[in-house]
Amino acid sequence: MNGDDTIVDTMMNLQLLWWVSEKTGEAKWPEIGKRHALRTAEWYVRPDGSVIQSVHYNPGDNRQMFHLHGGLATDMDVRIPNETAPGDWIFNHTHQGYSANTAWSRGQAWAIYGFTSAYGATHEQSLLKSAQQVADFAIDNLADDLVPWYDFIDEGVHFRNRDSSAAAIMAGGLLHLSRLTNDKKKAELYRQTGEKMVQALIDHYLTPVGANDKSPPGILRHGSSTRPSDVMLIYGQYYLLEDLLWIEQHQQ
């Protein structure tokens, strides 16, 4: 209630609407999800395929003061001149990426997975285009070992943080997208990249890492919630397991 911002992570929440529609048969739920996905594609996907994390909009009260959450902007109030129509974009920023003009890698992953899921549920061609656009940007900018830095622009220069959770989510999105795209070359690229990302996580980020690693087995290391954190993230664990199950169920 009374909010004025939204984040790209909400693309993952739409799966609840697809599920409710399937269970109830009510057409309003997928329509709401479709409208949200289309607006997200309009607001969050840059021309080069990189993804914005957060967009602030006019909630209808023409407010001039906005509160920024997370990252370097923790608990910061900013005054922004606002003469936009209700519901229109005012400005964007990042909670967890390097800056508002860069691409936070887990946000990129949420977008790949979210737009792919939205296309699968709605068959709206523009959502397939968005899914491929954000996927292609990610693939073109992955680190050498295919596990992204917490932000695609940083590459360890300012903060030495990879985000294994971004890789696990991204891999899942790519694997699902490989089954939905009509472009055979892209399908092969998405499948191969997704599988290689999963293998990289298993080989280099999943405990035990080395003979002297006393950690319990099966922990996905080097997740970055907000830099400079370097931790295990439960959604990294979850999506890695989902990736492995998907690969097992879709043997070529």
Would you give an account of this structure?
This protein has helices spanning 14-24, 28-44, 105-122, 125-140, 164-178, 184-204, 234-249; strands at residues 5-7, 54-57, 65-68, 76-79, 89-93. It has 252 residues and is mainly alpha-helical. It has a domain at 105-249: Glycosyltransferase (Alpha/alpha barrel), CATH 1.50.10.10. The strands form two sheets. Strands 1-2-5 form a three-stranded antiparallel sheet, with no helix packed on it. Helix 2 runs antiparallel to helix 3 and helix 3 runs antiparallel to helix 4 (125-140). It is globular, with a radius of gyration of 19 Å. The protein starts with a strand and ends with a helix.
Question: What is this structure, in a nutshell?
Answer:
This protein is mainly alpha-helical and 252 residues long. It is built from seven helices and five strands; from the N terminus they run βααββββααααα.
Assign the structural class, choosing from mainly alpha, mainly beta, alpha/beta, alpha+beta, or little secondary structure. mainly alpha
**Pattern of helices and strands:** EHHEEEEHHHHH
Fraction of residues in H or I helices = 40-55%
Overall pLDDT: 92
Q: How large is the share of residues in beta strands?
A: 5-15%
Strand order of the largest sheet: 1-2-5
Terminal CA distance: 47 Å
Q: Compute the CA-based radius of gyration.
A: 19 Å
Outline, from the CA principal axes? globular
Low-confidence parts: none
Number of distinct helices = 7
Number of strands: 5
Largest sheet features: 3 strands, antiparallel
What's the CATH first level of one domain? Answer: Mainly Alpha
- CATH architecture label of one domain: Alpha/alpha barrel
CATH topology (fold) name of one domain: Glycosyltransferase
